[in-house]
Amino acid sequence: MTTPDNQNPDTADTAVLDDATPSQGTDADFVADTKRSFFSRLYTGTGAFEIVGKRKMWYIVTGVLLLICVASIAIRGFTFGIDFEGGTQMSVPVVSSEITADSVETVVTDALGKEPESVQTAGAGSSATVQVRTETLDLQQAEAVTRALAAEFGPELSAAEVSISDVSSTWGREITEKMVIALIVFLVIVFVYIAVRFDREMSVAALVSLFFDIVATAGVYSLVGWEVTPATVIGLLTILGFSIYDTVVVFDKVAENTRSVLQTTRRTYAEQANLAINQTLMRSINTTVISVLPIIALMVVAVWLLGVGTLKDLGLIQLVGVVVGTYSSVFLAAPLLVTLKERREDVKRHTTRVVNRRAGIETSERDRPVRHRRPARAAVADTDDTEAKVPTGKRRRNR
C-alpha cells in the first residue's frame, strides 16, 4: 500500500487506496492530518475537520436554533414599523439637554391623554432626534401635541421644528405582498437553476438552507425587538442572495470531488463531500469577514455617528443574515446533501464496497506473517579454521 506525498506512513490512518495508484495531485491524495495546528488545518483543507461525519450534531444544533427562533416569533412577535401598521410619526430634534425620550413621552402622554406606541432616540450629536409613533392623529390632536412640546422645551424648541407625518398601512401591505411574490419567484428560480446545474438533491438541500436562513434571521429580529421596516425587507432579500452564492460554491466543489467517486473504492461519497467542505471552508470564512466588515462600518458610522436611523434596520438584518447564511451553507446544506445522496441505492452499494474493502485490507495486514531478517554476519577472525570457510572464487572441478 502506498502513501500520499503529503503524509507520513506512520500517521496515515484515513487513506485507503485503490489497486491502481491514482494520478499525482488528485483529491484522493489528500489525507486528513489532525496533528497540525488549527490554522494550518484550516488553510490546507485536507479534510481534517469532520463536518459530514458529525452531521447529526449539526442537525441538533440547527433544530435548537429553529426552535428558539420559532418560539420567539410566536410569543414575542415582531415590532412592525409605521409603514406597515400606519399611524402618525413625530420627529422632535434634540436641541437641548432637557429633550430626552422620557421627557418627550411625558409631554405627548399629557397632551393626548394616552401613551404613544413607541418613543426612541435616533442619531447622535447635533443630528439626534426623538422619534414618537402614535395612532393616527387628527389635525387638532397634532396641533395640541406641537404646542405642548414647544411650551415645555421652548424657547430652544419651536413648534415649526417638530415634524409630523401620517403614514397609511396600505403602503406597508403592498410592500409585504410584493416581498412575498419576489421571495417565491426567487426560490423557484434557485430550485430550477441548481437542479439543472447540479441535481435534484442539491436543489432540495439548498432550499432547506434558505428556509433556515429566513426563519433564523426573522427569529433574531424578533428577539432583538427592532422595528420591521421596508429596509428590513430589502435586507432579507439581499442576504438570501449571499447565502445561495455560498451554497453554490460549496456544492460546486462537492460535485467536482464526487464526479467519479462511484467508480473507485478509495473513499465514500460522504468522505469526498467532507473534503470539499474543508477545501472551501477558508473561502467561506474570508467571504464572510469581508462582507461583515462593511456592514459593521455602516452601523457604526451611519447610525451612531451620523444618526441615520433608517440604516440601522438594514445593517442588522444583513449582519445576521451573512453569518447565518455561512453557517447554513457549511453545516446544514452540505451535510443534508450527503444524507439525501446516501438514500440512493447506488451510493449505498458504493459505501458498502468501500467499507468491506477497508475491512479486508485491515484483516490481511493483521494476518500477514511477519518476516524476520537474517542477522548480519559477524566479523570473522583471521584463524586457520575460518580461512577454509571463506570462498576463494575458484570454480570447483568435477571429478
From TrEMBL:
Organism: Gordonia paraffinivorans NBRC 108238
Alphabetical list of HAMAP family matching this protein: SecF_B
The name this protein goes by in its record: Protein-export membrane protein SecF
Residue ranges, compositional bias (Low complexity): 10-21
Region of interest: Disordered: 1-22, 358-399
NCBIfam families on file: 2A0604s01, transloc_SecF
Membrane-spanning segments: 57-75, 179-196, 203-224, 230-251, 289-310, 316-340
UniProt entry keywords in alphabetical sequence: Cell membrane, Membrane, Protein transport, Translocation, Transmembrane, Transmembrane helix, Transport
Membrane topology: Multi-pass membrane protein
Superkingdom of the organism of origin: Bacteria
Similarity annotation: Belongs to the SecD/SecF family. SecF subfamily.
Annotated localization: Cell membrane
Compositional bias (Basic and acidic residues): 359-368
Source taxonomy: Bacteria, Bacillati, Actinomycetota, Actinomycetes, Mycobacteriales
Broad class of the protein's primary localization: membrane
InterPro entries listed in its UniProt record: SecD/SecF_arch_bac (IPR022813), SecD/SecF_bac (IPR022645), SecD/SecF_CS (IPR022646), SecD_SecF_C (IPR048634), SecD_SecF_C_bact (IPR055344), SecF_bac (IPR005665)
Description of how the protein assembles with itself and partners: Forms a complex with SecD. Part of the essential Sec protein translocation apparatus which comprises SecA, SecYEG and auxiliary proteins SecDF. Other proteins may also be involved.
Domain Protein export membrane protein SecD/SecF C-terminal: from-to ranges: 158-342
Described purpose of this protein according to its UniProt entry: Part of the Sec protein translocase complex. Interacts with the SecYEG preprotein conducting channel. SecDF uses the proton motive force (PMF) to complete protein translocation after the ATP-dependent function of SecA.
Pfam families in the cross-refs: Sec_GG, SecD_SecF_C
